[in-house]
Amino acid sequence: MTTLKELKKLFFSLKIRRKKSERNNNTTTIHLHGSNGFYIGLKLILWRKRRRVFSFISAISGCLLLLLLSSVYFPPPTANNLFLPRHSSVRHVVKGREALEYNFEAMFQVPASGGNLGRDLWSWSQSTFYYGCSNASKTFQTADIKTLPDRYLLIATSGGLNQQRTGIIDAVVAAYILNATLVIPRLDQQSYWKDTSCFAEIFDVNWFISYLSRDVEIIKELPPKGGKAWIPRTIRVPRKCDPTCYETRVLPVLNRTQAVELTKFDYRLSNRLDTELQKLRCRVNYHALRFTDPILKMGKLLVERMKMKAKHFIALHLRFEPDMLAFSGCYYGGGDKERAELGAIRKRWKTLHASNPEKVRRNGKCPLTPEEVGLMLRALGFGSDVHVYVASGDVYGGEESLAPLKGLFPNFHSKQTIATKEELAQFSSFSGRMAALDYIVCDETDVFVANNNGNMARMLAGRRRYFGHKPAIRPNAKKLYKLFLGRNNMTWEEFSSRVRTYQIGFMGEPNEMKPGKGEFHENPDSCLCQAKGIETFEEKSRKDAVKMSDEYQSIEDPDWIDVDYLYKIEEFMSD
After folding, report:
1. Is the distance from CB of 395 to CB of 401 less than 8 angstroms?
2. C or N terminus of the chain, fewer CB within 10 Å?
3. What residue ranges are annotated as transmembrane (predicted)?
4. 427 part of a folded domain
5. Do 455 and 567 meet the contact criterion of CB atoms below 8 Å apart?
6. pLDDT higher than 60, residue 54
7. Do 214 and 315 belong together in one domain?
């Protein structure tokens, strides 16, 4: 095909020839007519070519203009909003700029209803066949026989409320192992939380001493020696120290000095002890440790107000504070701003290694975002009409981070929304007492949910097993991470089906954990009994082992892995 450039050259040459022939007048009239006709034809072809090129250029320009206009007036949805319902309105808060609101088409639609899964969301059908049993056997030596005179054990706990709770529990068992009198543990007042509360301001100290009087002799303070106050010898025992470890490391010093204080006492006792000592742990945790009357009264009031709002409700322990995220080393897509802010906080812990956010999240160490935990709950069958009590500190990102969760569950409550400032005044300046209020609500709720696998999640999972196997949902973060990463490439039905599959073994059902698996405070199997006429724990576990998902079978004691991760910084506690 003749190109436009070639036609131009031909036209130009004919034009020159025509001028020459006119000037010389050497050609015949017929020849001139032929040249003129050919010249007109070429001019017509060139005009048509120009018209076609112009039309093509106009079409391209129009398309580019249309794309430009669409990008201005219809911006694409952000990654955080892809799961909200179709035509939903989303408010974006940008610092220093006016909030914008727009509608968008989601890649798939999250239903408002949780659907019909064919089971009760609020309890387990087999839970009535299980009960807590922690009474001592007839062979268990009582305190009046076992305790030796002039042998005192002191404990300095570490971390937040629930980490300190583990220390108090294990302190009683350590005193029993050492045949010593226990002095009421000293709470941590130096860590990040700077809570000045003492033991008696959070726990009922008289009840604690009285309830355990047959097991361990407990006194409120170290008696004077020779009429004078004396300073005990301080020791720090290694993690997971078993009875033999205490007898070789602590007992010789205790015999020489008569008083020893164990410092940074959290997870300093072996997870695996004989049954009698495990039952003693349960008596301390589930019966002797009782909050003070003011805390109990306020906690019960919060529970009553939630039950006035709905027959059933969820309590969500949402760990998404800046300090938690900085310590974990996770990254949530906030760009340089997030890296700078959390990086500055992370520098508080001098011994932390450089973070590897991708590896941490891949290993299931990152707390779920508020949006992710909301999607998990919807996939598990909880609809938008469900009332949710959120136990949380200051969430990183504020209302912008909470917006997707509130969009999925608009009946959103907290201490601050269901109680007045005056009612909370006596607790609000003390992080431990505020955490105790949340602990009570999370214990009394129909369904407890956590976005993490920290200390409070573990303690409450074990407590809810002990008192009737009430549902306690903790995320299988390692599997859910991959699912959330690829969520834009699947339908909601496929997504929700996978969530339900991955959460098998993480829901708080009877027999979902094998005896001896996990951390004892989470799985107190030595203190769980079954009604006669049903399968024993071991028999059911062996049968269920065949049916368990490959993922659950492949997890090798994941709870100790998580605990070891928290051990890197003793001052920090994922309460």
Report:
1. yes
2. N
3. 53-74
4. yes
5. no
6. no
7. no
Record the tokens describing residue 148, joined without a space: 């030796």
Run of H or E including 286 = none
pLDDT of residue 515: 85
| Residue 367 zone, left/alpha/beta (φ > 0; ψ -120 to 50; rest) | beta
> What torsion do the CA atoms of 122, 128, 129, 135 make, to the nearest 10 degrees?
110
- The whole domain housing 480 covers 127-131+294-320+367-532
Domain boundary, last residue among 532, 548, 563: 532
Residues 222 and 310 in one domain: no
Q: Which position has the token pair 């003693």?
A: 280
Residue 510 carries which DSSP code? T
CATH number at 486 reads 3.40.50
The tally of domains found in the chain comes to 2
Q: Are residues 263 and 308 in the same domain?
A: no
Both 197 and 234 in one domain: the answer is yes
pLDDT at 101 over 90: no
Q: At 77, is the pLDDT very low, low, confident or very high (cuts 50, 70, 90)?
A: very low
pLDDT beyond 70 at 106: no
Say what the pTM is.
Answer: 0.76
Predicted confidence band of residue 75 (pLDDT cuts 50, 70, 90) = very low
**At 505, phi and psi to the nearest 5?**
95, 0
Cα separation values, 489 from 84, 108, 110, 479, Å: 15, 10, 14, 16
* Average pLDDT value over all residues in the chain: 81
Q: Does residue 197 fall inside a structural domain?
A: yes
Task: Take residue 166 and report the two structure tokens written for it.
Answer: 């583990």
Q: Domain boundary at 532, 547, 566, which?
A: 532
Between CA 468 and CA 307 the distance in angstroms is 19
pLDDT of residue 111: 92
Q: How many CB atoms lie within 10 A of CB 29?
A: 7
Residue with tokens 């056997």: 137
- Phi and psi at 33, nearest 5°, equal -65, -40
Q: How far is CA 256 from CA 77, 145, 150, 152, in A?
A: 70, 22, 11, 12
Reduced to 3 states (helix: H, G, I; strand: E, B; else coil), residue 348 is coil
DSSP string, 464-501: HHHTT---EE---HHHHHHHHHTGGGS-HHHHHHHHHH
| pLDDT for residue 514 | 86
Percent of the chain exceeding pLDDT 70 equals 73
Residue 29 lies in a domain: no
- Asked if 213 and 311 sit in the same domain, the reply is no
Of 328 and 422, more confident: 422
H or E element, residue 20: helix 4-24
Residue 289 lies in a domain: no
pLDDT at 63: 53
| 77 contacts: CB under 8 Å, gap ≥ 6 | 90, 104, 105, 106
Reply yes or no on whether the pLDDT at 25 is more than 50. no
pLDDT in tens, 349-396: 877 777 889 899 888 999 999 999 999 999 999 999 999 999 998 999
Same domain, 395 and 519: yes
Residues 240, 311, single domain; the answer is: no
Residues in the chain: 575
Asked if the model's pLDDT at residue 453 lies above 50, the reply is yes
- Residue 517 φ/ψ, nearest 5 degrees: -85, 145
